[in-house]
Specification:
Strand content: 5-15%
Number of helices: 18
CATH architecture of the largest domain: 3-Layer(aba) Sandwich
Order of helices and strands: EHHHHEHHEHEHHEHHEEEEHEHEHHHHH
Distance between the termini: 27 Å
CATH class of the largest domain: Alpha Beta
Helix content: 40-55%
Number of strands: 11
Strand order of the largest sheet: 1-9-8-11-10
Low-confidence stretches: 1-6
CATH superfamily of the largest domain: NADH-ubiquinone oxidoreductase 51kDa subunit
Structural class: alpha/beta
Mean pLDDT: 95
Shape: globular
Radius of gyration: 22 Å
């Protein structure tokens, strides 16, 4: 289930973006021949739910959806919460630009995800689970539907799994291709039949008061895909991979101005430089490195002087950036940083659900200010206004993280590349090419 080095857990090989649609999907028989579903068998026949949760805690697995919260602690909260019933929700909304890792995991190996969901459900006492997937992922949805049928036929899903008293139904729920639908409480709203509006937290923390008011475990596809490997090989095994505070591997989506964009699985704690120059083979011909957004559009850019920073939650936070969903976007010297954050800003403005006035109005204001500078119509007071607006919006009370994400990339770009904004103002035009760094596959 992993290669001989122990440094690859979830993907059998790297996936260049050009080969994404030719990914071979592992069948259930192939998965079983490689040790698949042994983790589930061990969990049900040898371990109590509390033992499984303890093993996940021992592994040190942190959520791969962006926040990096302890997976074991989250499971423990759901397990100890009371309600009429409990649910597990696997979040595959993946609505942020240039993010394709969960999609790649489903295309390559749907059964490690199905097995992970089943173990998680058994651990927290849930008999109903949902795979909440972006509606544009039609091929991946079909792969999952077949995977669920095959797992049920072989006794790994459905009634009395593997002859035990544990039963589980997994339902696929499609969601709109919108950023806000990936927010965990907006997901609850959609599953319950409402529109994608995030709920106020507190009191609506899913772990204690989630789907239909009951305790609900929410993890993304990558997080849950790690579970079968942890249960089969042990938490100690997993904890020795990666960095001490961020064990394991992470699946990164590398895009932007690199020669070899793609999906790469690396140990946590790998230097940022390595993914750009070893995996991505460096920048496109004729380009020199300018910046990289290691956590996608919702985190601050990193400069060349910071390229030896380790790719893990804490190291990136320490330099004022973030890992996010591991969406690494590389910017070369001929690509305009102002135009880049303008595109990010437009995305967040268009994706705001409009529920929180400060988000709806704040994202519009940020976009208009950046566009004014990019178009050559700005002055130094506009640059100051951008900084002040970011500072103000970060402290607003809103229901989700969209507004925070919208400000971080802009604030970081102005801080680290102020001279480029000033050049737009002084020259009254953009002197760079506007490369399209928003990837589609």
């Amino acid at each position: 289930m992993n290669n001989s080095s122990g440094q690859r857990i979830l993907l059998s090989n790297d996936i260049p973006m050009s080969e994404f649609h030719s990914i071979a999907t592992l069948s259930i028989d192939e998965y079983i021949s490689k040790g698949g579903y042994k983790g589930l068998s061990k969990a049900i026949s040898e371990l109590k739910p509390a033992d499984i949760i303890e093993e996940v805690k021992k592994a040190g697995l942190r959520g791969r959806g962006g926040a990096g919260f302890s997976t074991g602690k989250k499971w423990e909260i759901v397990d100890s919460s009371t309600g009429d019933k409990k649910y597990v929700c696997c979040n595959v909304a993946e609505g942020e630009p240039n993010t394709f890792k969960d999609r790649s995991l489903i295309r390559s190996n749907p059964h490690q995800l199905i097995e992970g969901i089943t173990i998680a459900s058994y651990s927290v006492g849930a008999n109903d689970a949902y795979i909440y997937i972006n509606e544009k992922y039609t091929e991946e949805t079909a792969i999952l539907e077949k995977g669920l049928r095959d797992a049920k036929e072989k006794g790994y899903l459905g009634e009395e799994i593997l002859g035990s008293k544990f039963s589980l139904n997994i339902e696929i729920k499609k969601c709109p291709d919108k950023y806000v639908t990936g927010e965990e409480t907006a997901m609850m709203e959609i599953i319950e039949g409402w529109s994608a509006k995030p709920r106020q937290k507190p009191p609506f923390y899913p772990s204690s008061r989630g789907l239909h008011g009951n305790p609900t475990l929410v993890n993304n596809a990558e997080t849950l895909s790690n579970i079968p490997h942890i249960i089969l090989k042990g938490g100690d095994w997993f904890s020795k991979i990666g960095s001490p505070k961020s064990p394991g591997t992470m699946v990164f989506t590398l895009s932007g101005d690199v020669k070899r964009p793609g999906i790469y699985e690396l140990p946590m704690g790998t230097p940022l430089r390595k993914i750009i120059y070893d995996c991505g083979k460096g920048l496109n011909d004729g380009m020199v490195f300018k910046a990289v957004f290691p956590g996608g559009p919702s985190n601050s850019p990193v400069t060349e002087a910071q390229l030896d920073t380790l790719l893990d939650f804490d190291s990136l936070r320490d330099i004022g950036s973030g890992l996010g969903s591991a969406t690494v976007i590389v910017i070369g010297d001929s690509t305009c940083i102002v135009n880049t954050v303008l595109k990010f800003s437009r995305f967040f403005m268009e994706e705001s659900c409009g529920q929180c006035p400060s988000c709806q109005m704040g994202t519009v204001k940020l976009f208009r200010l950046i566009k004014k500078v990019e178009d050559g119509n700005g002055d130094m007071s506009d640059l100051k206004d951008i900084e002040d607006t970011c500072s103000l919006l970060k402290n607003q009370s809103v229901y989700c993280h969209l507004l925070m994400g919208a400000t971080l990339s802009v604030e970081g770009a102005v801080k680290n590349f102020r001279s480029e904004f000033e050049t737009h103002i002084n020259e009254k035009k953009c002197i760079y090419k506007s490369e399209d760094i928003l990837a589609t596959i």
